[in-house]
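Researcher: Structure prediction, please.
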Amino acid sequence: MLKVMLTHDDLRRKILRLDGRGYKAYKALRGAYAFPRFILYLDHIQGDPFAAPTAARVIIPQREAGFPVALVTHPARQVGLAHYLAERFAAAARRVSRPRGTGHSGQIRILPVGQQMLRRTALRVDADAVEARFTVGLPAAGRRILAHEAVELLLHDLPRVVAESLFYAAVDPAAAQAYAYTAEDAEALRAMLEARGWVAFLAEGSLLPRRSGVDDRPLESGVPLTAPPTLRAEVTLPHAGRIAGLIIPQGVTLIVGGGFHGKSTLLRALEYGIYNHKPGDGRERVVSHPATVKIRAEDGRYVAGVDISGFINHLPGGRPTDFFHTENASGSTSQAAAIMEALELGARVLLIDEDTAATNFMIRDRRMQALVRKDKEPITPFIDRVRELYTERGVSTVLVIGGSGDYLDVADTVIWMDEYRPRDATEEARAVAARFPTGRVREAQGPLPHPRRVPLPGSVQAAKGRKPAVVKAPSRKALQLGRHTVDLAAVTQLVEAAQVRAIGWALVYAHERYMDGRRTLAQVAAALQADLEAGGLDILARHGYPPNDLAEFRPLEWAAAFNRLRTARVARPEDATG
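Model: Predicted structure follows.
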């Protein structure tokens, strides 16, 4: 027999019958309710006014929402439009939210969005519907239900938020189109890089400086980007048309210049060029290869079974480094491990700023080579592997260098930042290198290893008390997994706590399904990615209702979180037994 859906009037009557009762009586509201133009789902009812708020969602069929087919049938446009609608929903929710009692009473909130346009579970747009997932704080005085306030919240304020933000007739058509088309242009531009031999493209006029380290909005007084003629290229985008910009070629690229002239700002733009940015961000047409990874030293980090022998070998005492394990890595061992871990997951571009690198890992100059013989120095500096990475592995490197001129000998391209304006200094750098030979001796011996590890069952321990899995993300820099906290501060390409939360649940998911003691970490990541592409982030749901607080992530950051789990255990493929 076909079940008849309850209506908004039924919801009103149910709420009013709860007036004055204990807060847990709100659980009777769980279910779906048909409003005139949308369906409201109350998926999870909070048990206390101070607990996590009630999880709710609305679904609006496109025949009601009215968005043009052109905006909702292309994947990149869907993401851009969803970002715009999430901003509008959040703004409308702020206008109506007010204290309506104890705790979270009266609040309507959706996952906040930043400058990056990501796939998120909070808001979805496609050819069939618009869906928003959010939380509401059901009103109470102490722990007694305020039914009339709840009716006002759910049957007046919430429909107003929906009406002001999720229907095409209520939005700015030009702005909606700008978000959708900006996302599509960025995807099209990023897809051009590989075939043209570039690792990045930065459009002329882009505004790279940010307001501060904690404010990712553009610095309005910043210097717009220009491109020197020898590093300038033009491309044609689906919507922006013909544009010109600065290219970063494949190979080894140095970014040089005086302090405070924009070297790190340029590198940071490349770091976040893996994401699409919203209109007005200043980096809308700044894109990097999708497998670009920022590498830095990370004193004290955990390292599990990484082959760092290509960089660090013959340690005192004969300690092996082809399956290196430590609870407390040094700057040099952590940087070596980070590079090999990135290669293990398919990184194609490495970004390194000497300010956040281990000096002894980056260079040993001729004088130090003369003083400390190679047979007494375990470290093979990065300068002696960087060209090999490109010529043998096809992995490019972009380095910010301010104090080590030895890198001029191994560079393909040198970009000089002068008052935030780049110029091509490649020929000058070659002339300087020829005029002042360093006399240093290349110290690399043998090829770089091919990293392959098998994660073992039991590596992801997410249980806490009676709960089989607890995942929390206090910020984009930390993941709480069960009783353990994972420090992700050095995984700098994560931009939202929602990504960290998704990574946590993805670790649990992959551990349960794919970490069988036979598959390599790369194979586990590939299987996880295939599932996400087929089913979206909803496959990570653990509570019986769709998640509203997750954002997409790359396998590279997922693996980076696994690598920092102090419970992680791995084996060599040849030693794995399953």
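Model: The first helix runs from residue 8 to 16.
Researcher: Thanks, that helps.
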